[in-house]
TrEMBL record:
Residues 560-974 form the Polynucleotide kinase-phosphatase ligase domain. SUPFAM superfamilies: DNA ligase/mRNA capping enzyme, catalytic domain, Metallo-dependent phosphatases, P-loop containing nucleoside triphosphate hydrolases. Residues 61-79 have a biased composition (Polar residues). This is Polynucleotide kinase-phosphatase. It comes from Streptomyces tubercidicus. Residues 276-471 form the Calcineurin-like phosphoesterase domain. NCBIfam families: bacter_Pnkp (TIGR04075). GO terms for cellular component: cytoplasm. It holds the Pfam family PNKP_ligase. Residues 1-95 are annotated as: Disordered.
Length: 979
């Protein structure tokens, strides 16, 4: 097997005599391709600048039409730079100098030629880097030539930073020596931008006169100017060979003064096109399947007189985008080319080249290439077409651009993938990666090159959609998607609707070409990829959120979160969300109360919120339940192993139960209830994310109860009877101890109330459940087995497949959950047990009671207060007050608190201690600093919403976890834990 035969599915390496880093079609400067080393050509043929006034999508010309002006410009420039200047006087004509919007512009001219004046007139001050200014920065003297070395180090460093950030950069220095220019061209190559030379060829006497007029240069020797002029003359004919993509020569004062600089957009920069798009994967000559796929996408085909498809348009104005590899291996490569070329020419499609088009283009140009990997079949098919069609194909391929940046920079389309540092860049190295990807240098058991898994490390904002490597199924990995699903090998042809992120595919009609190895691998990095990386969550971080802007996470807080996540958390693939903390209502001035509903209602009324819902606050542990419709859905969507159908975890990401079977029992009951209630079909989802409370509190707080609360209760129960007995005996003997006895009796009553307060939230589960009945066998009763007595009270549906439901009104949320809970009766009866529906009934699911309150209606407010008093009198923890409508903002644009908790008087004994209600203690405790707690609650809320939105948008796991980690990190901020 030859080297050319070893490439996988058309991913062949370029011909050894035609380096991937070189231009691959006729270049007006043939010497460039000979002199530039592979992968370092800073100016590939495909990414010539495109004027900023780009036609609209429906009128966008094909790439071949865009090529002509650039070729003419290069020809003119070559003639100007090809020999010594014409000594005859020439009339000055206005010159338009085209400069790519991302390039390194090098001004070249003798001292006094007017470079700084020219730069100030045509470029922004921040774009210009002056060697004189840098010399002054390092030596306090712009004319101190001994500081030139350090000055140029500074200049090159700043230029590198600007180019890395994608900024146009202009170097204002003499640059008449080739050594100085070589460093700048190298800098442009390192950052994959185009180097542009602007030469100011001004007569020696003019330069001398200008220098003489400057006090700091009046004594400059004339020989310096003469030396600069000689070096400039020697340089002119070699500038393009040195690597400058564009060379503009301005001769004389008038031509310099009349010149105009025009900034041009790069060909690959189509950020102004926002779609919608339909991105279509590798076709490989499968014309029939392409027609079927276009039909499914809604395109109407246009046929010529012979019935051949020559165009396709979408009635809603969508644009098709082809990721390359249109040809080879399949039955009708000419038919595919005819259709795609027609769509591109009509403005109905865009197309980037694949490695197979690149090889076909070299063949059509007359280069020697090996007729392997399906090229022989394409050549045979093209031989049946006329010469005019073959010429058109060659021109079409030569005009294709390596990649496109679309939709405001949020989408990049290329053939083989592209790291973020190459997005929008223009170089042979970029084109090479876009066409061929990269390899590790190894070969697999089939002798095929092992692809470098660049997508594993991708952390870019833009979604990268590509093809090239066949996979059985298109899956997102770190915001990248491979659309090559091996149609020509009997797989499918796949398209991505953008921005909907919906996949549409059609099966292959047959196996058109036998693959070298089975389509049994994922896209590069997909099978054994690293979806999360330590660098994604460590150190100080800024997280962009849609609802609160940029939120900062301190490095020490991130370290604490990492400790919890890495040691105790569940599988990160099942951890898309962590619930935020909740602030209490404002401190109450009501006699005997620290918190009271009146303050909650008044606070929301002040924020402009009229309608709120008061929800019963269950005394348990916060739980998040990720419930999948079945194990298959969990495996497909979240990549978890067989036997796992979801997750049940705490607000710090830890599993609630050590026994996976216990988790599955809970998930199974919720899943069955959702099925019974019809929620799967109604919400069009195969998974649900629920925010809930899991009871009893003692289920996860046993250690806290024993060490803290029970210890206080036990100590008081042991001490107070003896103390009271002694005091009562002393009083019986006539000793005046009445004040002391009264205080101690009060303290004993407070201690008893404290013990009673926490006992309300503790009961046995499993073998000895809350009803005190005989032990049950695992799996008995209502099918909960050892979880008899456990209650799950869901109060919000956070998300479903493809959408966040956090913005749904709370009344609608609770109505859906009521149906879920009501369905448990039927489910439990089917399982041979009893139903549920509340904490006073057997079963798993508990209802969240609630009442609506109008904050501007006194009677409604009074009813809400009375309801709270009734709840707390029964031993309830209290309530949570929320705006009925979610995601509300105040008049100044700030988010309204999503909810505040108003806890009962007796429950607060657990938090603040048995004697907190004493007047002297209440006075002290009323000085509560709630500002930090409220800020923390809002920030965590915004981060939680961001995680849900990113998950709904199909963003990669690391992006979702960036927000999830931030929530946990903020929990490490110092704040009064009693709040």
């Amino acid at each position: 097997m030859t080297n050319d035969d070893r490439s996988e599915y058309g991913a062949e390496s370029p011909h050894p005599h035609e380096s991937r880093g070189q231009p691959t079609y006729e270049d007006s400067h043939a010497h460039e391709s000979r002199d530039q080393p592979p992968h370092e050509d800073p100016h590939p043929h495909d990414d010539h600048p495109l004027p900023k006034k780009t036609p609209s999508p429906e009128n966008t010309p094909s790439p071949k039409n865009r090529q002509a002006p650039e070729s003419q410009q290069m020809t003119t420039t070559h003639q100007k730079c090809g020999g010594p200047p014409d000594p005859r006087p020439q009339p000055a004509a206005p010159r338009t100098l085209a400069v790519p919007d991302l390039s390194l512009v090098v001004l070249i001219g003798a001292t006094g030629s007017g470079k700084s004046t020219f730069a100030a007139r045509h470029f922004r001050p921040t774009e210009v880097l002056s060697s004189d200014v840098c010399r002054g920065l390092v030596s306090d003297d712009e004319n101190d030539q001994s500081a030139s070395g350090d000055a140029f180090d500074v200049l090159h460093y700043i230029a590198g930073k600007r180019l890395a950030a994608g900024r146009l950069t202009v170097v204002d220095a003499t640059n008449v020596q080739s050594e100085a220019r070589t460093q700048l061209v190298r800098l442009a190559r390192e950052h994959d931008v185009l180097p542009v030379a602007i030469v100011l060829d001004v007569p020696e006497q003019v330069c001398a006169a200008r220098n003489a007029a400057r006090a700091d240069r009046a004594g400059l020797p004339r020989r310096v100017i003469q030396r600069h002029q000689r070096e400039l003359r020697r340089s002119l004919r070699h500038l393009e060979r040195e690597g400058f993509r564009k060379v503009h020569v301005l001769r004389g004062e008038e031509e310099v003064a009349s010149a105009e600089v025009v900034t041009e957009r790069r060909f690959n920069d189509l950020r102004h096109l926002t779609g919608p798009f339909d991105i279509i994967g590798d076709i490989h000559g499968c014309r029939s399947e392409l027609e079927t796929l276009l039909g499914r996408l809604g395109y109407a085909l246009v046929r010529d007189a012979l019935g051949r498809p020559v165009d396709a348009a979408h009635p809603e104005g969508r644009t098709a985008v082809f990721v390359g590899d249109l040809v080879d291996r399949g039955p009708d490569s000419p038919g595919v080319l005819r259709l795609v070329m027609g769509m591109v020419g009509a403005g109905h499609a865009l197309c980037v080249p694949g490695n197979h088009e690149n090889k076909l283009g070299r063949y059509l140009k007359g280069s020697k290439v090996q007729h392997t990997h399906g090229l022989a079949e394409t050549i045979e098919q093209l031989d049946k077409e006329d010469a005019a069609f073959r010429t058109e194909v060659g021109e079409f391929i030569r005009g294709l651009v390596s990649h496109y940046v679309l939709d405001g920079g949020g989408l990049v389309v290329c053939h083989a993938g592209l790291p973020e540092k190459y997005h929008g860049r223009t170089s042979g190295r970029v084109r090479s990666f876009a066409l061929y990807g990269d390899t590790t240098g190894e070969t697999d058991e089939f002798g095929l090159p092992v692809r470098y898994p660049w997508a594993e490390d991708y952390r870019g904002r833009a979604a990268v959609v590509y093809g090239h490597t066949p996979t059985p199924r298109a899956n997102w990995l770190n915001n990248t998607l491979c659309l090559d699903t091996g149609c020509v090998f009997g797989g499918a042809m796949t398209a991505l609707r953008w921005p909907e992120r919906e996949l549409v595919d059609v099966p292959a009609e047959r196996v058109w070409y036998e693959p070298t190895k089975p389509l049994a691998t994922e896209a590069p990095g997909g099978a054994d990829g690293r979806p999360l990386d330590l660098n994604d969550v460590t150190g100080r971080r800024i997280v962009e959120t849609r609802h609160m802007g940029r939120l900062a996470v301190k490095g020490e807080n991130a370290a604490a979160a990492l400790e919890v996540m890495s040691r105790f958390a569940i599988d990160p693939r099942l951890l898309p969300y962590l619930p935020p903390t909740m602030a209490p209502c404002a401190t109450s001035a009501e006699e005997g109360y620290l918190e009271h509903p009146a303050e909650a209602f008044a606070g929301y009324r002040a924020d402009g919120v009229r309608e709120v819902v008061c929800e019963e606050k269950h005394m348990g542990s916060r739980a998040v339940a990720l419930v999948c419709r079945d194990e298959a859905a969990a495996g497909e969507l979240f990549g978890v192993p067989k036997g796992v159908s979801g997750a049940l975890y705490t607000r710090t990401g830890r599993p609630f139960f050590d026994d996976p079977e216990a988790t599955e029992r809970v998930l199974r009951r919720v899943r069955d209830c959702a099925e019974e209630a019809g929620l799967w079909d109604e919400l069009e989802t195969d998974w649900l994310l629920l925010d809930a409370e899991l009871m009893p509190w003692s289920l996860k707080a046993t250690g806290l109860l024993r060490r803290q609360y029970a210890a206080v209760g036990a100590a008081s129960a042991a001490a107070f009877p003896g103390v009271l007995g002694a005091l009562e005996a002393a009083a019986a003997r006539g000793v005046e101890v009445s004040p002391l006895l009264g205080r101690q009796r009060g303290r004993a009553a407070d201690a008893a109330a404290f013990t009673e307060a926490y006992r309300r939230y503790c009961w046995r589960v499993g073998a000895e459940s809350a009803d005190g009945g005989a032990p049950r066998e695992p799996g008995g009763g209502a099918g909960l087995g050892a979880l008899e007595g456990v209650r799950l009270a869901p109060f919000q549906i956070l998300a479903a497949r493809g959408r966040s439901l956090a913005g749904l009104a709370h009344t609608e949320q609770l109505a859906l959950l009521d149906r879920l809970i009501a369905a448990e009766d039927a489910v439990a009866a089917r399982d041979g047990g009893t139903g549920g529906g509340g904490t006073d009934r057997p079963g798993l699911l508990a209802t969240t009671r609630r009442i609506l309150v109008d904050t501007e209606d006194e009677s409604s407010v009074a009813a809400g207060i009375a309801w709270w008093q009734e709840l707390t009198a029964e031993g309830g923890e209290g309530m949570v007050v929320k705006p009925v409508q979610a995601l509300l903002r105040q008049a100044d644009g700030r988010l309204v608190q999503p909810g505040v908790k108003c806890r009962g008087r007796e429950y607060l004994r657990i938090i603040y201690g048995p004697e907190y209600t004493r007047p002297e203690n209440l006075r002290r405790l009323r000085v509560r600093h709630l500002g930090h707690k409220r800020s923390l609650a809002l920030r965590e809320y915004a981060l939680g919403l961001e995680a849900l939105d990113r998950m709904a948008d199909g963003e990669p796991l690391w992006r979702v976890h960036e927000a999830v980690f931030a929530v946990l990190a903020l929990e490490s901020e110092p704040v009064d834990p009693r709040l």
